[in-house]
Amino acid sequence: MTQHSLNKTERKAAFSLASVFGIRMLGLFLIMPVLAVYAQAYPDYSPLLVGVALGAYGLTQAILQIPLGMASDRIGRKPVIIGGLVVFILGSIVAALADSLIMVSVGRALQGVGAIAAAILALAADLSRDEQRPKVMAIIGMCIGLAFAISLVVGPLLGGVIGLSGLFWFTAATGVLGILVLVMSVPDVVTTSARRESLPVASELKKLLKHKQLWCLNTGIFVLHAILTAWFVTIPTQLQSAGFESQTHAWFYLPTLAASVALMVPMIIRSSRNNSSVQWLRASIAILILSLASVFYAGNSAVWLVVALVVFFTGFNFIEASLPSLLTRIAPAGSKGSASGIYSTSQFLGAFVGGVAGGWVLQNYQTSGIVVFCLILLLCWFVISFLMKNPESVTSLSVSTPNLTKDKAVSLSEQLLTVAGVKEARWVEDDQATYLKVDKKAYDEKAVNELLGALRTGE
After folding, report:
1. At what angle do helices 302-330 and 277-298 cross, to 10 degrees?
2. Cβ atoms within 10 A of the Cβ of 372, count?
3. Long-range contacts for 147-151 (Cβ within 8 Å, ≥24 apart)?
4. How many helices (H) and strands (E) does the chain have?
5. At CA 95, angle to CA 89 and CA 99, rounded to 5?
6. How far apart are the first and last CA of the chain?
7. Least CB-packed of 3, 13, 54, 173 within 10 Å?
8. Tens-place pLDDT, residues 331-352
9. Which pLDDT band, with edges at 50, 70 and 90, does 197 fall under?
10. What share of the chain is helix, strand, coil (3-state, %, to 5)?
11. Is residue 90 classed exposed, middle or buried when 0-12, 13-18 and 19+ CB atoms within 10 A define those classes?
C-alpha cells in the first residue's frame, strides 16, 4: 500500500538538508541589501567593483555546479558538501579580512567555489522514495526562498551593528553551523549510482542545451537573476537618497516582501488551476517591466520606490516559484537532473553577469542606465516567452527494470506507452530503470504493475 506522507527518515532528511542549504544561501544573500552602501568605505570603491563583488560568487557557482554534482556520485555526497562548506567558510574569512573591494570580490568568488546545490539535492533524492521526493524537494525550495527573504531583513539590521566585515564573519559562522547540522542530523546513505532526477549526466547535456522549451526556461532564469543582482547594485543607495538610513532598510523590505507574497499567492493558485503557467509567466514578466519602468518616475520618492519594489517582488516571487515546476514538467523523462544542472548554471551565470554589467552601467550611466539595461533584458525575454507552450500536467516516476536486453527494453517502453496516463517511457541501461512521465489523473498504476510483473516472471 502506497504511503502518502513522509516517513521519519524523509522528514529528518528534508528539514536538515533544507537547513544546510538555507544557511549557506543566507550567507551568500546577506550582503546584497547592504554592500552598495558599506562598500563606499573601501579605498578602491567604484560601482563596477560593487557589481563584481555582488556577482562574483555566481561565476564560480556556474562553472562548478555540474562538475561537483557529478563528483558527489563518485566520492559521496557528504564529502562534497562538507568540502564545499569549508571552502565557503574560507571565502567568508577572506572577505571579512579584506581591505579592498577587490579582495572582497576574491572572497565572494571563493564562497561560490563551494557549489554544493547539486550534491544536496542528490542526497535528498538518495534519502527519499520516488513518490515522496517532490515533497522533500519542495521543503528545500521553500527554505531557499525563505533564506532570501530573511537576508533582506537581517542584512541591514545586523550590518548596522557589526558592519560589512562582521557580516562576513557571521556567514563564516553559518558555514560552521551548516557542517554541524549535516554531520549530526542528516542520515547516512550508501550512494550506488547517479539519480537522473537529481544529478546531471554528461552525455545528456549537449542534447538538452538544444531543447527549445528548456532553452526558453534557462534564458528566463538567467535574465531574472541578472536583473535582480543588477538592481541591488543601486537599490540600497536609492533608499538612502529617499531618506532611509541603511540600518532601517530592514523595515522597508519586510512589509514590501509581505505585500508581494500576499499578491503572488493568488497568482500561483490561478495558474495551477487551468494549466495556464506560460500565460501567467508572460504576465509576470510584464509586471517586472512595469515595476522597473515606474522607477523612472520614482526619483527620490519613498512612496514610488515602495510601489515599484512591491510590484517587482510580486512578479519575481511568482516567476521564481513557477520556473522549477515548469522545468520538471518539460524535462524529458529521466533527464531532470541534467536539465536542472543547466538551469542552475544559467541562474548563477545570470547573477554574475547582472552584477558586473550593473556595476559598469551604474558607473557610466547612473541608476537610469541600470533601469534601461534591465528593461532591455526583460523585453527580450518577453518576446522569447512567446516560443513557450503550456506543458501537460505530468508527474515523473521511475521503476526498476533490471537485466533487460535492448530489444526487451524497447518492447516494454512501447507497451507502457499504451497504458492509460503514460505520456513518456524511457529505459536507461546504466540505471537499470525505466523513467515515466504520467498524468496522475488518468494513470493506470495497476496495468503498469501487471506489465512489470509479467516481465519479471518471463511471461
Report:
1. 160
2. 14
3. 147/21, 147/22, 147/23, 147/25, 147/26, 147/29, 148/25, 148/29, 149/257, 150/26, 151/26, 151/29, 151/30, 151/32, 151/33
4. 16, 3
5. 150
6. 25
7. 3
8. 887 787 888 889 999 999 999 9
9. low
10. 75, 5, 20
11. middle
For residue 29, give every residue at least 6 positions away whose Cβ sits within 8 Å of its Cβ, in sequence order, or none: 147, 148, 151, 152, 155
Provide the residue type at 313 as one letter: F
Contact by Cβ (8 Å): 342, 46: no
What is the rounded CA–CA span in Å between residue 162 and residue 168?
Answer: 10
Instruction: For cell 549530526, name the residue.
Output: 184
User: Helix, strand or coil for residue 9?
Assistant: helix
Q: Please check the confidence at residue 193 and state whether its pLDDT lies above 90.
A: no
Contact status, residue 451 vs residue 409, Cβ threshold 8 Å: no
CA–CA dist 245, 447 (Å, integer): 65
SS3 386: helix
Contacts of 311 (CB under 8 A, 6+ apart): 260, 287, 290, 291, 294
Q: Which three cell numbers stand for residue 238?
A: 536609492
Helix spans in 1-132 (H): 8-29, 35-38, 47-75, 77-97, 101-113, 117-126
CB-count exposure of residue 325 (10 Å: 0-12, 13-18, 19+): middle
What is the Cα–Cα distance from 348 to 354, expressed in whole angstroms?
10
Locus of grid cell 528566463: 220
Lowest mean pLDDT of 60-74, 144-158, 259-273, name the range: 259-273
- The secondary structure of residue 39, as a DSSP letter, is G
* Distance between CA atoms of residues 56 and 353, nearest Å: 9
Contact call for residues 394 and 329 (beta carbons, < 8 A): yes
Higher pLDDT among residues 239 and 288, named by residue: 288
Cell numbers standing for residue 42: 573601501
Radius of gyration, CA atoms only, the chain: 23
Query: What is the rounded distance in angstroms from the CA atom of residue 115 to the CA atom of residue 67?
Result: 9
- Whether the pLDDT of residue 147 is over 70: the answer is yes
Phi, psi angles (nearest 5°) of residue 182 = -60, -50
Closest CA to 374 of 257, 253, 285: 285
Cα distances (angstroms) measured from residue 95 to each of 48, 74, 304, 368, 434 = 17, 32, 34, 30, 47
Q: What is d(CA 113, CA 83) in angstroms, rounded to the nearest whole number? A: 10
Tell me how far apart the alpha carbons of residues 106 and 96 are, in angstroms, rounded to a whole number.
11
Residue 442: half-sphere exposure toward Cβ, Cα within 13 Å? 13
